[in-house]
Known about the structure:
Layout lengths: L7 H14 L5 H17 L13 H12 L3
Helix pairs in contact: 1-2, 2-3
Amino acid sequence: FKQKTAYEIRLSLVGSEMCKETDLGERDAAVRLDTAILSVLKAGQVRTGDLGGKATSAQYTDAVIAAMAPR
């Protein structure tokens, strides 16, 4: 493969679903993660390569973490 694409958003959503659908007891955290991902997507400032953007995995991660921060 010439490009390294991890499909960060898909992986984040899968992790969130695992937290919701298993007995991990992390449903609230999963909902917070979902909300943060949607917030980042709606803002449109940070787009990874799988969505036609140029943001790195680190930039995407930082944006999601910032969106999860209490306000």
